[in-house]
Amino acid sequence: MERLLKIDRRIIFVFVAAAVTIPLLIKFDLPVIATKEVRGIYDKIDSLSEGSHVLIAFDYDPASKEELQPMAIALLHHCFKNNIKVIGMTLNPGGTGLADSAITEVGNEYGRKYKEDYVFLGYKTGVELVMINMGENIYSAFPKDFKGNATTDMPALKDVQSLQDFDFVVDLASGSSIEAWIAFGKEKYNFDLGAGCTAVIGPDMYPFLQSKQIEGLMSGLKGAAEYETLINRKSSAVAGMSPQSVVHVLVVFFVIFGNTLYFMTRRKK
Amino acid sequence: MDKKTDVSILTWILVAFCVINIFFLVTGKLGFDAKGLGIITAVALTLAMYSFLYKDNPVFKIAENLFVGVAMGYWIIITWFNILKPDVFEQLIVPFFKDTGNAPQYIVIIPTLLGIFMLLRFSDKLSWLSRWSFAFVVGLGAGITIPNFIHAFILKQLTFDSLIAGSLPDSINNFLILLGVVSVLIYFFFSLEHKGVIGGVSRIGVWFLMIAFGASFGFTVMARMSLLIGRIQFLIRDWLGIIQ
Amino acid sequence: MNFFKRTIPLIIAFIMGIMMAFQYYVPHEASQSLLKVVTRWGITIAGFAVFIGAYSLFHLHWNKIKRKVPGWGYSTFVFFGAGITIIFGLYNGGEFFLHDKQEGTMFDWMYFNVQVPAGATMFSILAFFMASAAYRTFRARTSEATILLIAAVIVMLGRVPVGALIWEFLPPIADWIMSVPNMAAKRGILIGVSIGAIATSLRIIFGIERAYLGGGD
User: Residue ranges of the alpha helices (H) in chain A?
Assistant: First the structure.
């Protein structure tokens, strides 16, 4: 039994790889039901009228791409489908390329025009300083967009002077930017905020949900899958839910099996 | 396992990788263009990273160091195009040489100088000047933190729902939330000796914390597995084309 | 000289801190303008921080190469990766770096085909090690560890679609764990951490906390 407890960890690795790969190859669908946290963001965007302004902060980098990029894409589909003007930005230098590609690809899919229907403002450093500066005047923080165009008089930003003028702001975060958006953005300049984050920081966001400092929360690939289900456009996040389920069952099995072996060997001793 | 086995495993993987890619290039499944070669490069790096699961090895280390270098290079260039170029170069320097319709923004000299001072941290003689820059940024950060944190994270978070709610389960939940917050705060309050009533309450705090840490562990497993799922999707969908 | 090296930085931090803390309570136009100007300056100053990061990284790897420490050869790849990315970035698809950033250049290619896959994969490796840890070290040795373990198992199963198929009450129990005990504990931590951040801010403003000054006199 002790030998079983001390098996080569690479055997465990093989099990994990199989638990992820096989469900993707066999492909079986499991029902993904949207939670009220994810529905909070969906309902908010759905309630916005055509031409409303939504700011999406892509505050993540390649390390969290697999969780947050599907979320960003689902969110963008919803916005562009509803003819909402999308303004993108990032506080993470590693996120610029991912944000730019997501916003451009989905925008093109719906035939939306850059500068008129959407714009990517690019990256600024200083986190809370950027938020406060945008809260005072968005053109001060971003005099130019990611491509170098002057932002003043840009049709996509018509009627937007500061953060207060956005109908909804969504932060997609892999770090502590949601807290910063709450403290230095939402609470200071009073706008509706939604959050999407990696599953690692998801549990830390629940106090803000309960205090209604965020309208809704998407956490991890599961959150993205729920959003894909809500917009009726099942893609990589929904496809990822079957391997996610199988691998979770495997990890739970490991925990139970490991503990059973441990206590049996201890009793023997 | 000895070195010989490791080398033969590496060789076979390399051969398989080359054969598959040559096959894809010849059959036109992957184009001999930026996109096709990009996918091959991305797959090579993905597999190089995963080779760490077998054991720490030179291929992994090369990929790791290359990644660190590229990420730093990207950060530098993005900072130039997004911050230094539009906010300093074009506002302060360009108007001297070109008629942009705008006068040079002399006020930009102050943050530019403070930014340059910050870099003097590495100088032996002038590193003291960097303290001025750090003092500016740190003082500014401290100043804005105090009122905003009090408002957003203390006053707003200390608002609890009534214990007499519409239904019994809601009332119990509201009570549990109050108990949890108070007991966790008492647990963290080390100025009081954790004995008697305080000790009992702080023990309840530990239970709440354990449930929260358990939830965080569960979510962390979920996060890491999602990343793995994404990479496997990339390999079998974008590269091998086995799934749609 | 001590005045310039020590006293002035402390005065700057004090003035900035006090001014910005009080600014919050003064909703006057002049006060708003001040906030706009100093945060704008802060963004520009923070932009230069990239070079501090770059210096630290390159210095570390240059020393490894110079001293020929074991594995120094790998450090050359840091310079190789950074070098070609910076060169492609400055070349900017033939437009060079004084013009606006061009799309679809070799610089973007490096990002999408080197940085993105390598970065995404590096962190996914942890998936395997977490599974291994779950099997080898995650033990219900004490009552606290048992509570943690049970919560983790319920959340892991309740948050994925298969949870409802195993037992229909798993998802609602997982939701309850998240929004009641987890929420309460995280709120306690949040309040505690915020009090700590406020205390640190006060210590900085009043010159008690001086770590940002660095070493030396």
Answer: 2-5, 9-26, 36-47, 65-81, 96-109, 128-136, 138-141, 177-180, 187-189, 206-210, 220-230, 236-239, 241-268
Q: What is the ipTM of this complex?
A: 0.94
Say how many domains are in chain C.
3
Name the CA radius of gyration of chain C, rounded.
26
Closest CA to B39 of B243, B242, B244, B240: B240
Tell me how close the Cα of B130 comes to any Cα of chain C, in angstroms. Answer: 8
Chain C contact present for A206, CB below 8 A: yes
Q: Where would I find the beta strands (DSSP E) of A133-208? A: 168-173, 193-197
Strands, sheet with A217-219, edge to edge from the N-terminal-most edge strand? A118-123, A85-90, A53-59, A168-173, A193-197, A217-219
Q: How many CB atoms neighbour CB A212 within 10 A?
A: 10
Same domain, C154 and C204: yes
Task: Indicate if A21 and A72 belong to the same structural domain.
Answer: no
- β-bridge partners, A123: A90
Residue A253 domain-assigned (yes or no): yes
Does the beta carbon of C162 lie under 8 angstroms from any beta carbon of chain A?
A: yes
Residue B194 clears pLDDT 80, i.e. is over it:
no
Predicted confidence at residue A157, as pLDDT, reads 96
Q: Is A181 exposed, middle or buried (0-12, 13-18, 19+ CB in 10 A)?
A: buried
State residue B74's pLDDT score: 98
Domain span at residue C10?
Answer: 1-47
Residue C58 lies in a domain: no
Same-domain pairing of A127 and A187: yes
Amino acid, res. A248 = H
Which pLDDT value is given to residue C180?
96
Report the alpha-carbon angle B79-B84-B86, nearest 5: 110
**Among residues 194-213 of chain A, which lie with CB inside 8 Å of chain B?**
198-200, 202-204, 207, 210-211, 213
Select from B76, B223, B189, A203 the least CA-distant residue to C97. Answer: B76
Tell me, yes or no, whether C198 lies in a domain: yes
**Which of B180, A131, A211, B79 shows the shortest CA–CA distance to C181?**
B180
- Note whether C120 contacts B227, CB cutoff 8 Å: yes
Number of independent structural domains in chain A: 2
The structure tokens listed for B80 are: 């130039």
Share of chain C above pLDDT 70, in %: 98
Residues C101 and C123 in one domain: yes
pLDDT in tens, A111-154: 999 999 999 999 999 999 999 999 999 999 999 999 999 999 89
A18 and A104 within one domain: no
* Residue numbers of the domain that contains A170: 36-234
Rounded to the nearest angstrom, the minimum Cα separation between C94 and chain B is: 15
Q: What is the pLDDT of residues A197-225, one digit of tens each?
A: 999 999 999 999 999 999 999 999 999 99
Residues of chain C positioned with their CB less than 8 A from the CB of A200: none
Partnered with residue A219 across adjacent β-strands are A197
Using the Cβ of C26 and the Cβ atoms of chain A, whether some distance falls under 8 Å is answered with no
| CA atoms of A66 and C23, how far apart (whole Å) | 41
Residue that wins the pLDDT comparison between A171 and C216: A171
Which of B219, B221, B229 is closest, CB to CB, to A240?
A: B229
Spatial distance between the Cα atoms of C141 and A258, rounded to a whole number of angstroms: 12
- CA–CA separation, A233 and A187 (whole Å): 33
* CA C154/CA C144 separation, integer angstroms: 16
CA distances from B153 to A179, A211, B156, C204 (A): 9, 10, 6, 20
Angle between helix C8-23 and helix B127-149 axes, rounded to 10 deg: 20
